[in-house]
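Lecture 7 notes: from sequence to structure.
We start with the chain below.
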Amino acid sequence: MGCLEPFYPPVEKYDDFLVVEGIITDQAKAQEIKLSRTFRLDKIMTLPETNAGVSLISDENAIHLEEVEPGIYKTNPFQFIGRLGATYQLSIITSDGNQYLSKPVVLKYVPPIDSIHWKWEEKTSLEEFGTLEHHEILQGVQLYVSTHDATDQTNYYRWDWVETYEFQAQFESLSKWDSDFRCAVPRNLPEEQIFRCWNTVHNSTIIIYNTDRLSTSQVSSFPINFVSNRTRRLQRRYSILVKQYALNAKGYTYFQDLKTISENSGSLFDAQPFQVYGNISNINNKDELVLGYFDASSVREHRIFIKNTDLDIKHLGLGDSCEKFHGDRSEYSRNRLKQGLDVVIDHESLSPSIITWTQRWCGDCTVEGVTKKPDFW
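Predicted structure tokens for the same chain:
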């Protein structure tokens, strides 16, 4: 095989489209709509759409949303809660005077989640990541959702999740580097501990299913997330909060098309790229493309916890490449300390210039998480 050289095509022009993200639910909390703009392929950035007038038009009245952060618009939770069966439209007036309106959507009923359960499984990296790169066998926890609608009102489902896990660094840091005195000093524990942390990760995939061709609206053991033991997520305690929404047929088609486009792996057998159309348009220019889909649904939630003692396996983790180093500070690169690349583990009380250190990833859990325990933990 010959050598491969990266090619970066010049990007002189790009389409400036409005992007709308948001769903109205029956939860007693602020409802959020996010507005942004598309950006150049060679740039990694977020371009929030600021100073817009955003309103929810219902059967009864219009509710104004306040911009609480650049591009983030929210309702007042004391003034508005989505109502089951009500019809809503999203109205947007941008700062340049363009007016956008969504198609009317009904806040749909969704049944409770019957269970979130898991199994210890093996799968290939091809199944997990959709690419032949680093093709190997992975072990971990496969999470499933089950639900049913006895009333047969719901045929199209969408799920979202937020996972939180407790983990610890490979080595506990009892000392820290004092740059002023150029020596190690004891940490003020437990306030300054960086050994035990929690991290929260939001789902970034599209998880949908339909029972349209089934005799009953029943979902049995549908996979929603795989947790590999090659990460720290199963090291101590793991939790996942699953949210379940209802879609209509048009909403399901939108997310199905978006899923097809977003999960292409770059192989010859992928579907050809195509344009995905949402349900929002410029009222004065129907030809203008607006990205995103506005929807309304009731929501059901279910949380489970998995402790490391529930898993009869040896956690592999990421600590195998961690090393401790010991010696005089002259052997230690003070620049690496200042840059946060390494962390002091301990020092000799009578000789504070004699220290033990390691790579920051191995001795500082805040590289990946935070030391504040979540309220629900």
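Points to note: Residues 119 and 142 are 5 Å apart (CA to CA). The chain has a mean pLDDT of 87.
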